[in-house]
Specification:
With 59 residues, the protein is mainly α. It has one domain. Helices cover 73% and strands 0% of the residues.
C-alpha cells in the first residue's frame, strides 16, 4: 500500500510541475512569444510555430 501511495504522489507531483511550467509560457502571438521565437533556433521551430510567427510577428 505504501508503494502505491508513493507512486500516486509522484504522478500528482509530476502533473503539477508540468502544469506550472506550461502556465509560464507566453501566449502564441504575444509580444513576449515573438521575442522568445526570435531567440529560438529556426531549425527547431515547428510548422505551426513558423506559421504563427509569420502571421503575428512579421505582418
Amino acid at each position: 500500500m505504501v508503494s502505491l501511495a508513493k507512486s500516486c504522489m509522484a504522478v500528482v507531483c509530476a502533473a503539477l510541475t508540468a502544469a506550472t511550467l506550461m502556465a509560464c509560457s507566453p501566449d502564441v502571438g504575444s509580444k513576449e512569444w515573438c521575442e522568445d521565437m526570435k531567440q529560438k533556433d529556426k531549425g527547431q521551430w515547428t510548422g505551426n510555430e513558423a506559421k504563427a510567427f509569420a502571421k503575428n510577428c512579421v505582418f
